[in-house]
Every structure is written in structure tokens, then in C-alpha cells.
Amino acid sequence: xxxxxxxxxxxxxxxxxGKTTLGKELAQRTGLAYVNVGDLxxxxxxxxxxxxxxxxxxxxxxxxxxxxxDKMGDGGVIVDYHGCDFFPERWFQIVFxxxxxxxxxxxxxxxxxxxxxxxxxxxxxEIFQTIYEEAMEAYKEEIVHQLPSNxxxxxxxxxxxxxxxxxxxxxxNN
Length: 174
Ligand code: DAT
Hints:
Its main location: cytoplasm. Its EC number is 2.7.4.3. It is found in: Cytoplasm; Nucleus, Nucleoplasm; Nucleus, Cajal body. The chain is about 50% helix and about 20% strand. It is built from seven helices and seven strands. The strands form two sheets. It has a five-stranded parallel beta sheet with strand order 2-5-1-6-7, with helices on both faces. Strands 3-4 form a two-stranded antiparallel ribbon. The longest helix is centred in the last third of the chain and has 22 residues, at about 150-174. The model has no long low-confidence stretch (mean pLDDT about 95). Bound molecules: 2'-deoxyadenosine-5'-diphosphate. 2'-deoxyadenosine-5'-diphosphate binds near residues 16, 19, 150 and 152.
């Protein structure tokens, strides 16, 4: 039996833009696997040092890549992370950068318990479109797409569009 080829999808963007919400629902609808890189690092303790300024462990990017390599090679994985330039470019067939308006993002992050510098820096990250620019540098521009992620209607529309893209990709590649 020939195994169906399936695409890998990267969901990236500033913390709080809605990657996890979209990724988990997308996995349910498509049958693709969902990988939250933050959770993966936590489970495997894939850290290298401690960031005193932000009071959080520093991701060991090489170990994350090693850990995921085989799974990504098989295809059919949705990866969720607030950074994107350390993954091998060849892993992903499409990259989505979720975008949220400042005021919206501010209240979401406040609700998550972020305060002070951490809150300011993350909102600023979104204002300066840092992750979008990182994605445009790291991947072919034509596979990088921005998705508005402000309200529930955005979530529904994003889901529909990506589900359709996956179906089309499967037809074209099998
Ligand atoms: P991320 O994984 O990017 O950090 P999340 O999925 O945890 O973000 O979402 C952060 C919060 O925002 C969470 O309370 C759910 C909410 N949210 C996500 N997508 C949304 C949308 N399209 N409309 C309204 N709220 C949304």
C-alpha cells in the first residue's frame, strides 16, 4: 500500500495571536498531527541555559530540530511556535503568520498574566511585525501568508482556507 503524502504546515507569530487555538482545531479537521514546540521542549527539557531578563529557560534549537526531524520527514505535521528561523526551510510546504491588532493582543496577554516588560516587548514584537519579517527571510516569500486573527470569524475563515489548501495539496501530490 502506498502511503499518502501529506504537507507540513508552520503556524507562527507573536505569543497570543492564536496559533494554538488554530493549530489544534486544524489538526482535528485535517487529521494532521499537531506539535507545540514550547510543550515539546518542556516535556523533553530541550533547553540550553536560562534567560535572566525574561526569567525563562532558553530553547535548545538544535535539539528541537533533532527531536522533530524524523516526524517532519514523514509529513503531515502542524508546527506551532513563536519563532521560525531555526527550522530547516525544507520542512514546510506553507507558512502562516497570524496577526492580531495591538489592543486585542494586549488584553489577551494581560489575561494570560503577562505584565511589565514581557507584556510591552511582546506587543512591540507584533507592532514591528518581527515574526513576519523573520518568516519572509527564512522561507520563500510565496509560501508565507499572513492571517488576521482578531475575532472568532477570523478563526473560522482561517480554518476553512487551510483545510481547503490541505485538500488541494493532497490531490496535487498523490
Ligand atoms: P498562541 O498559541 O499564539 O499563543 P492562543 O491560541 O493561546 O495563542 O490564543 C491566545 C488567546 O486568544 C486565547 O485566549 C484564545 C484567543 N484567541 C485565539 N484566536 C482568536 C480569535 N480568532 N478570535 C478571538 N480570540 C482568539
